[in-house]
Write a structure and sequence with these properties.
Layout: H1 2-11, H2 16-34, E1 37-40, E2 58-62, H3 89-96, E3 100-105, E4 125-126, E5 129-133, H4 139-147, E6 152-157, H5 163-169, E7 172-175, E8 195-200, H6 203-213, E9 242-246, H7 247-250, H8 261-279, E10 283-287, H9 291-295, H10 297-312, H11 330-341, H12 344-357, H13 359-383, E11 389-393, H14 412-417, H15 422-427, E12 431-439, E13 442-449, H16 455-466
Parallel strand pairs: 2-3, 2-6, 9-10, 9-11
Antiparallel strand pairs: 1-3, 4-5, 6-8, 7-8, 7-12, 11-13, 12-13
Length: about 475
């Protein structure tokens, strides 16, 4: 997608201004129905077309990245009028590449959620079926790419917030190695889990965007220096590669009381993907993973993320910035601002986080969660000594209906199939979701996760499979 657009721009067959205008026009056409944007920009300036593959090409940005002079709300009422004075590092890098941002996209409030329904400007709908959610927290970015109004969009991923919406939206969602991309200017949710990543409609595009925004940043001490091109690693040759899947997650016997046509079809599709990889010359093996550890992924993630979120968002008081509440004392003003400024979901997470961090609870709750996280990461690190990547279904059902009773149901199906992608956040492993089929006319995807700093190899494993299917560049029915 991106390379073809760049070629046309270089040859003069296409003008950047026309491309941007078309993107904005399409965004306006779909905005009322799908609610992708918090802010849609109209005063976009023309840019020079350079050797950068991203020059002159429009993109969308999740509204939890700081953008100088542009509203940056985190989809929260407490930041509904916040206009930063500085750009996030990734925004600066895209500007240097002459990329053109056309809008800031809706997310679950402060990136805490997986439904795309808690943003202060309303819910985001799935372009494949407007009665279904697109997932979150990077909901608007996923919807914009799925609709085809932009070729790529920025997102953030703390548990699966890029990869699950990509699964539901039939697009590519990539979360690189922790530290590969600077988080400076990203509103923090849980710093030890937060990753910057992107949505695209092809694996090559994901490599192109990641190459443009990765690298060391003095303002993010967790960032790393890397000059290797990820795009150059995409050969499509995976002969001799060793892949594994976790048997407990894809074993139908584990879901005897919770099996339906959707789950059967998703697991059957996964079996087909295993066959395809074997035909490509890879070895694919099932391994056993402690089931108790797998079932602990969600509570471990929830405990750590709530604790870190409580600390990270303690500055949202209504005193420094944001709507100032009434009160006779600062403590009263802060209490009223946070009570009125946050949704019930966010307040609940902050209460849980505060409870977890209380001195008398830290050993039993927070530190135990960290121990379980370490056990999971150690097991994965050991497996990566033998295998090149882990493959699994990206979820256990197609995008749910908005009023689904199964949302967040703590069944084995939910705990295992819907939450395993958080493993990549626990260990900072590079992880991508690519479209691999349809169930009930809704897209599904495959999750591929590899060792740290093997981003190019992980994307190449995805690229090889992508080349055997017809989903490159696909656009949701509404966007065609």
């Amino acid at each position: 997608m991106i390379e073809k657009l760049h070629e046309k721009l270089i040859k003069g067959e296409l003008k950047s201004s026309d491309l941007v205008k078309e993107s904005i026009a399409k965004s306006k056409e779909f905005q009322d129905k799908y609610n992708m944007y918090v802010t849609l920009l109209d005063n976009v300036e023309d840019v020079e077309i350079t050797d950068s593959l991203l020059s002159g090409i429009p993109y969308a940005c999740k509204d939890n990245f700081s953008t100088a002079g542009i509203l940056s709300t985190g989809s929260s009422n407490i930041l509904k009028d916040y206009v930063p004075f500085f750009d996030a590092t990734v925004i600066k890098k895209l500007k240097k590449n002459n990329a053109v941002m056309i809008g800031k996209t809706v997310l679950d409030e402060l990136a805490m959620g997986g439904t795309g329904t808690t943003g202060h400007t309303g819910i985001v709908r799935n372009p494949w079926d407007e009665t279904r959610l697109i997932g979150g927290s990077s909901a608007g970015s996923a919807a914009a790419v799925a609709l085809g109004v932009v070729p790529y969009a920025l997102g953030s991923d703390t548990g699966d917030s890029i990869r699950k919406p990509a699964f539901y939206g039939g697009i590519v969602g990539f979360k690189p190695t922790y530290g590969l991309i600077s988080r400076f200017g990203l509103f923090p949710f849980a710093c030890s889990l937060d990753h910057v990543g992107c949505f695209t409609r092809s694996v090559r595009d994901a490599a192109i965007v990641t190459d443009a925004i990765k690298g060391k940043d003095e303002r993010d001490m967790t960032s790393v220096d890397t000059k290797d091109s990820i795009l150059e690693k995409l050969t499509g040759d995976i002969k001799g590669k060793k892949l594994f899947y976790i048997k407990e997650i894809v074993d139908k016997d584990n879901y005897k009381d919770d099996t339906d046509e959707e789950l059967e079809a998703i697991l059957d599709n996964f079996s087909e993907m295993v066959k395809k990889y074997k035909e490509l010359g890879a070895t694919v093996e099932g391994i056993s993973f402690n089931k108790d550890l797998l079932k602990a992924i969600f509570p471990t993630y929830f405990t750590i993320s709530c604790a870190e979120a409580t600390s990270n968002n303690s500055n949202l008081t209504g005193l420094i910035f944001g709507p100032r509440a009434e009160g006779t004392k600062t403590s009263e003003m802060m209490f009223n601002a946070r009570t009125q400024g946050f949704s019930e979901l966010i307040k609940r997470r902050f209460v849980i986080g505060s409870y977890v961090l209380q001195k008398e609870n830290q050993e039993k709750l927070f530190l135990n969660a960290q121990r379980i996280r370490r056990m999971i990461v150690d097991r994965m690190t050991e497996l990566y000594k033998t295998y090149d990547a882990m493959i699994l279904p990206g979820g256990g059902s197609v995008a749910p209906k908005f009023k689904s009773e199964n949302l967040d149901k703590l069944s084995d199906r939910y705990l295992l199939l819907e939450n395993h992608m958080a493993i990549a956040n626990f260990g900072g492993f590079p992880s991508v979701t690519i479209p691999c089929g349809f169930v009930k006319e809704m897209p599904i995807g495959l999750s591929i996760t590899g060792p740290i700093f093997k981003d190019g190899e992980v994307l190449n494993i995805a690229y090889a499979l992508e080349n055997t299917m017809d989903y490159v560049g696909q656009v949701a029915k509404e966007g065609k």
